[in-house]
Each structure stands twice: as C-alpha cells, then as structure tokens.
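haha ok so turns out i had the wrong file open the whole time. this is the CORRECT one, sorry everyone. sequence first:
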Amino acid sequence: MRESHKQTGIKYAQFSLVGGSNALVDLGVLNALLLISPTRSPEMLVVYNVVALVLTNANSYLWNTLWTFRHQARHDARQVGLFTLQGILNVAVGGLLIWLLAHAIVAYTDLSPLAGGNLAKVVSMVAASTMSFVLLRFFVFRKAEP
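then structure:
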C-alpha cells in the first residue's frame, strides 16, 4: 500500500474516533433541545442543528488539532480561517439537509419530534461529516509545502 494511502487510512480512522466524539456532542445538544422544547417545525430544527453544530465544530477543532492532524496543525490565521470556513460550510450543508429531511418527515410520517429530528440529523450528519473529512484532510490540515 502506498504511504499516502496508508496515512489517509490512519487519518480517517482517527477522524472517525473524533467523529464519534462529535456525534455525542452533536446528538446530545440536539436531543437536549428537543427534550426541552419539542418541535415539528423544520425551521426550528435547523436552529437547534446550528447550535449543535457550532459546539460540535469547536469540539472537532480541539480534537483534530491536538490529535488527528497534530503534526499539521499550525494554529495560524490561515489554518484557523480555513477551519472556520469548513465549519460554516458544514453547518450550511447540514442545515440544508436537515431542513429538507425534516420537511419530508413532517409531511410523510407521524414520527414524534424526537424520532423525526434524530432521523433527519443522522442522515445530515453522515453527509456533512464525510464532506468535512475531505476538506480537513486535503485542504485545512494538508502537509506544508517544503
């Protein structure tokens, strides 16, 4: 196996463990908000999702700079700016997907707000997390040019 493929595999495994931590934060915040104030409104679900994703991206930054990409983490303005842009894109894609899915769930099912919100969240989380890995691995934390 080529070294770059092996390194990408290792990074993806580490990123997946960080992703587990992110999922706990993401779903924990979303479920706390749904338990405090249940809603079937796709717009409110997007608001809850934004709150959850802001906290999740903070968690992601800490774990990825301290562990997954620690050798490429520079904490300079460019890298922090790219991470922030990646986070904004992650929130936008996740928000759009959860909004679309929530509309479909509200229109076509009788699921409770908790079940419907979590179903929409899991699908949007998988898509947004995959996109984030690609952006973090190949743009934000790519190896510095010698």
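The chain is about 85% helix and 0% strand.
again sry for the mixup
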